[in-house]
Amino acid sequence: MVRSINLWSFIFSVLCVFLFFLSFSHPSLLNLNFYMAVVVFLIGMIGFFGIHNWKSAVRSILTVVLSITLIIIIGLILFVGHLFS
Q1: Mind listing the pLDDT tens digit for each residue in 9-44?
Q2: CB 37 within 8 A of CB 16
Q3: What string of H, E and C letters represents the secondary structure of 45-82?
Q4: This prediction's pTM
Q5: What confidence score (pLDDT) does residue 58 get?
Q6: Cα–Cα distance, 77 to 85 (Å, whole number)
Q7: Chain Cα centroid distance, residue 24
Q8: Which of 80, 77, 64, 76 is nearest to 16 (CA)?
Q9: Which residues contact 20 (CB under 8 A, 6 or more apart)?
């Protein structure tokens, strides 16, 4: 079960990166992408329990790094956007 959580959290983190670049043309997706990245980060932390080899370790680390990066970048965009609105 935890092994599949590890894989799905990686897939959703890549989907979040795709949605981030898609949000340049549709800015309303930023809020959805932010909340999705937070959920993927939490599930990615749970996925660390499913590490059995080096591939799953790299997948878990990439999931957490991608989601944290997206949370920081999108959080800053939303924060500055709300300041100037």
Answers
A1: 999 999 999 999 999 998 888 999 999 999 999 999
A2: yes
A3: HHHHHHCCCHHHHHHHHHHHHHHHHHHHHHHHHHHHHH
A4: 0.89
A5: 92
A6: 12
A7: 17
A8: 64
A9: 33, 70, 73, 74
C-alpha 70/C-alpha 58 separation (Å) is 18
Tokens of 79: 């924060």
59-75 CB burial, b ≥16 within 10 A, e <16? bbeebbebbeebbeebe
Two tokens, residue 35: 């909340």
Is residue 47 within 8 A of residue 6, CB to CB? The reply is yes
Query: What distance in Å separates the CA atoms of residue 52 and residue 85, rounded to the nearest whole number?
Result: 48
Q: Write down the number of H helices and E strands in the chain.
A: 3, 0
Tokens 């898609």, located at residue: 22
How many other C-beta atoms can be found within 10 angstroms of the C-beta atom of residue 84?
5
